[in-house]
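DATA CLASS: polypeptide
GOAL: derive structure tokens

***
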Amino acid sequence: MGVVVAVEGLDGAGKATLVDALGRAARTRGASVATLAFPRYDDDVHAALAGEALHGEHGDTAASVHAMALLFALDRRDAAPRLIDLRAAHDLVLVDRYVASNAAYGSARLHQGVGEFAAWVHALEVERFGVPAPDAQVLVRVPPELAAQRVRERARTAPGRAPDGFEADAALQLRCAQVYDELAERQWWSRWWVAENRHSGDKALTRTADEVIQAVLTAEFAPGLSVRSDTIET
């Protein structure tokens, strides 16, 4: 059975870049790799509804923290069998956004740290929906203002990719970054790594990818053990 690694971070943090780097590092070592990204706006009705709500549709749906979190959770519930199949067929499964995103954004919207809302997300997605646990999680840490700049640049170069309600809320992004830091510090749900990404381009995260893959694909890593959090400066 393969290892599942979830990559987390703000919109514009560089998650996709790290996923690509992790995949290259794993394939260099001869591992088979699969990827999955959430929300699956084009493949799941719940994710599609959430995406539409974030762009002003469906009345006051986006105003409800729990309603939005439930839609994102239902997307992962629907994808759980596929994730299990991918894990059985590959050495490594990389997930771009996972349950921690729901905990981080919802907690930030409610002006909470890692507390009541994060516990509700865990109870909903893990205990009730049976979403598979990741073996490791990697937080791509970036200054919120830099992440926002990247989101704006992406919107300029990709017509039709206007920032959604979460991406456009600078105060929310700042609070979300703080919750992500707390999730990583607490080793919420599994082992976490932290990758600093203050520069554009694939090289910015290459060393982090090598460190993570070296650990998760060798005896250095034992899922479920209580270990300290490693911060990898890149």
